[in-house]
Specification:
- By secondary structure, this protein is of the alpha/beta class.
- The protein is built from 10 helices and 14 strands.
- Helix 8 links the parallel strand 13 and strand 14.
- It is globular and about 55 Å long.
- Bound molecules: 2-Phenylacrylic acid.
- The site of 2-Phenylacrylic acid has 6 residues, from loops.
Amino acid sequence: MTDTSLFEPYHLGSITISNRIVMAPLTRNRAGAGLVPSALAAEYYGQRASAGLIITEATQVSEQAQGYQDTPGLYTPEQIAGWRTVTDAVHAKGGRIFVQLWHVGRVSHVDLLGGKVPVAPSAIRAETKTFVNNGFADVSEPRALETEEIPGIVESFRQAAANAMEAGFDGVEVHGANGYLLDQFLRETANARTDGYGGSIENRARLLLEVTKAVARQIGAERTGVRLSPVSPASGIVLSGNEQPQFEHVVEKLDALGIAYIHIVEGATGGPRDATPFDYAALRTRFGRTFLVNNGLDLSLAELQLAGGKADLFAFGRMFIANPDLVERLKAGALLNPLDPTTLYGGGAKGYTDYPALTE
Ligand code: 8OZ
């Protein structure tokens, strides 16, 4: 046991963050025309700059990568400029911010893709819905990516990582979780490929590792993190029972790439932490640098995990939506604002930038 505090600085890669509390990536569906983050986004993230680290909402690496209405991108000059206003707002208040880079794969709809069909490891539709045309709809039937198309996917992540540096981000988190493209490749239930990207633990991990390597080469391994959700059924993922060896392999290989952190969603994303047994300590022992955990944490659980050496950093999601000054509130033992679930996705300032801080 150690007596380290959540509220003291921590060295993450080559930066120092002011505490061990991280704002988790949170989709809010409020991007403006051209899928550019709005002025409100700069205000929203700036309000939350006392987090040790902010990880942005999932952000598309290309047009093909979009799966929901009004989620931002990082592949046009306008999007880069929009994100620059966000990173400036956070840095002006002494905060640090990584962008989460995202390709949704099969979790999309033809109406979001200019009539094109979503791409996936295999032509297996997910039993899940997306948000499109101002309502929920079943995701479209996907098509399997040709082997020749895979380098283009890797390149889109590399280019978006380069764009992230231009936009002033401190680093990049590769979204390998929650049933999106890279996670789809990891799963036997979504990936039936017979080329080098399917058919074995090593092959299913290949795309995630190629993407991470390309991002790390572009911006530095010390600025690169990866998010994983080993046993989450998010976005229609069907578990196979073989998650333990699959994810142990992934983490060993990520460790060898020298990246700054892995970010583990424990249990079902936004749901129970322990519905499916999984040995997270076996991932921690395979990774030499920062271990960031998330899902349904509160202050006492985070303190317990820190004291027990189970993780280094702790990401809070819903609590950060409702409490811009979450770090100060946790430190003071203050009451927390309740979350308004009706304003999570889409809309404007209401439920976005109007949650009060303690001092207001
Ligand atoms: C909620 C709604 C839409 C997308 C994830 C990017 O689960 C998401 C997401 C969450 O990682």
